[in-house]
Write a structure and sequence with these properties.
Beta-Lactamase; 4 domains; alpha+beta; 5-stranded antiparallel beta sheet; 18 strands; 6-stranded antiparallel beta sheet; 602 residues
Length: 602
């Protein structure tokens, strides 16, 4: 507490100060010891003195009684400054309005995302600046409801809405509104976050997944239309077109329009039309300039060409090139967005165009591979089929020679003849194997619901003589469900795998073969385990290739097609097959898995 002081100036002091008339701050600082070190107190105390009629009042009392209050006021002021600093540096826009929707607060982020400066925004109706016209009545009703009931649908709730920029374009925002009472007045604080970029990235990722899934079951043309529709949706563009550049880089051909273009705006024929780049309009500037182009005022372009009858009227457009190996291979364009195209639109369409072309290349490669495989299968079928006839003739003449020459052949000539006969037989077996291999999936045998155990039993009938010959033991275990498959192919699959286990047994050891089946997770799983010669692990990768043999033909017969045929049957049914072995002499396990539906649903 400061020492007591006189309440008034002495007469002599008043006389001496009569001419100078010091300010309240100056007089207060001179009168109170230590006050000069507290400028904050000087200013506030002087204000209170002035409010009470002048310096004649009890300055000491003002000092003593007001010191704590003044410190509190200064603390509040400091907190206000801190809060203002937080709001000024917030990543979110903050707008404050009164009960009449007049803007009373507007931070720098609000100015950045809406385009209105603080000076322009303060005192203006909020709805006229940032709320799209179709939502303004709802906004007004929401304020009225809160004033009447103290509750509202959007108060203290995070919502996603469309906002209006100063230039007229709309964009998505997240919004939270909180009521605030200050000095007896009701205000509303709106915390707003621009989510344009987040929505754009999510939109591109969603479009990517949709297009990849769509491509699996649709044609190339349908995919291109879908890509244009995605680009149109993400940029609010009702018009879209996709052109491929010809190999000569001098012309391009229209592939497709977007769905809305052909349905609502364009009746002109054009699909498949070729355009010379040198003579085409401004829409091919992206090819000439090797960069994207945006024309937000198409009508003002001096080099624009007219449109054929029925063509959509273009108001604005954005066209992006797709590059591969330094060359433009395609262009994707969108048009007639209600507001100007922005850099964000350009980035979106560029990514979608590039993604679409990746899928196009994949579909083209798949189509070429399918065509090549079909030709190869047709070739192998024709060759193996046509070669069997002359081969049978060769075999017949060799048999006639054998019978005709009889015992006249010496040992060496007999050996040569036997080599020829054996070679003809092996070649015939190979041709038969090739025929079977090429026929997988070609017979048109539709899948049907089958008893898998019955298929196994039928396969075992073919193998029974060979099983009896070596007294092999076959154990059948597990659950054998009903499956949806092609019967003859599954029988051949089981026959080949069990026959393979039987063939490659170790001499002097009774073959033991375990056949196990189970149905789990919508898959039919089968394994055939044996105690035979085993497989060197590093050689397992060769097992399912055509004409690949891991054992000597002199010891084990075969043409190297059986396991390749198994792989093709399994893959034709959408499954997978593999082999396992710990090494030579330690047996093998062959497994396959086929996808299955629930039988009860059919």
């Amino acid at each position: 507490m400061l020492p007591a002081r006189q309440n008034e100036l002495a007469p002599s002091d008043r006389d001496s100060n009569a001419g100078s008339a010091p300010s309240a701050e100056e007089a207060f600082a001179d009168w109170i010891p230590g006050a000069k070190e507290r400028k904050d107190l000087i200013e506030v105390a002087a204000y209170h003195i002035a409010q009470r009629g002048g310096f004649k009042l009890d300055s000491q009392a003002c000092w003593d009684a007001g010191e704590a209050q003044i410190d509190l006021m200064l603390s509040l002021r400091e907190n206000q400054l801190k809060l203002q600093t937080v709001l000024d540096n917030s990543l979110d826009a903050v707008a404050m309005i009164d009960s009449d929707s007049i803007v009373t607060g507007w931070n720098p982020q609000a100015a950045r995302i809406f385009g209105w400066t603080q000076a322009e925004a303060l005192g203006q109706p909020l709805h006229g600046m940032i709320i799209p016209p179709r939502y303004r009545e709802e906004h007004a009703q929401g304020i009225k409801q809160y004033l009447a009931t103290g509750a509202g649908p959007y108060i203290k709730t995070l919502i996603e809405v469309r906002a209006l920029h100063r230039d007229g374009h709309e964009f998505p925002v997240e919004l939270t509104i909180a009521p605030v009472r200050s000095a007896g007045k009701l205000e509303f604080s709106a915390f707003i976050r621009d989510i344009t970029e987040r929505k754009r990235i999510n939109g591109i990722q969603t479009a990517r997944l949709r297009l990849l899934e769509y491509a699996a079951s649709h044609s190339l043309k349908e995919l291109l239309v879908a890509a244009l529709d995605e680009a149109g949706a993400l940029t609010d563009s009702p018009i879209g077109f996709f052109h491929f550049l010809d190999a000569d880089q001098k012309s391009l051909s229209l592939q497709v329009w977007s769905t809305r273009t052909t349905r609502e705006f364009c009746t002109a024929a054009g699909e498949g039309s070729h355009y010379n780049i040198d003579n085409a309009g401004v829409w091919v500037e992206c090819v000439r300039q090797q960069r994207p182009v945006i024309h937000n005022d198409y009508a003002a372009l001096p080099d624009r060409h007219g449109f054929p009858p029925g063509h959509a009227v273009v108001l604005r457009e954005m066209v992006v090139p797709v590059f591969r190996k330094g060359l433009v291979v395609a262009i994707l364009g969108v048009g007639n967005k209600a507001t100007p195209y922005l850099d964000a639109d350009l980035e979106t369409v560029t990514k979608l165009a590039d993604l679409a072309w990746d899928i196009v290349e994949g579909m083209r490669a798949d189509a070429e591979l399918s065509r090549s495989n079909a030709e190869l299968e047709q070739f192998s079928y024709a060759v193996s089929h046509d070669m069997r006839q002359p081969l049978r003739m060769i075999s017949s003449y060799l048999q006639l020679l054998d019978k005709g020459l009889g015992t006249t052949l010496d040992a060496e000539k007999r050996k040569y003849l036997n080599f020829a006969v054996d070679g003809a037989k092996r070649l015939d077996q190979m041709l038969v194997g090739l025929l079977e291999y090429s026929r997988v999936g070609r017979k048109g045998e539709p899948p049907e619901w089958l008893d898998s155990r019955a298929l196994l039993d039928e396969a075992m009938l073919f193998l029974q003589p060979a099983l009896d010959e070596v007294q092999a033991e076959v154990r059948i275990e597990g659950d054998w469900p009903k499956i949806l498959a092609s019967p003859n192919e599954i029988i051949r699959l089981l026959q080949n795998l069990i026959g393979n286990a039987l063939k490659f047994h170790i001499a002097g050891r009774v073959p033991l073969i375990l056949v196990h089946s189970e149905k789990c997770n919508k898959e039919w799983r089968v394994s055939i385990t044996d105690n035979g010669v085993g497989i060197i692990p590093s050689q397992i990768g060769r097992l399912f290739q055509v004409f690949q043999r891991l054992q000597s033909r002199a010891v084990y017969e075969g043409n190297g097609i059986g396991l390749a045929l198994c792989r093709k049957i399994v893959e034709h049914h959408g499954g997978r097959i593999w082999a396992e072995s710990a090494g030579e002499g330690q047996g093998s396990r062959f497994c396959f898995v086929l996808p299955q539906q629930e039988f009860e649903k059919h």
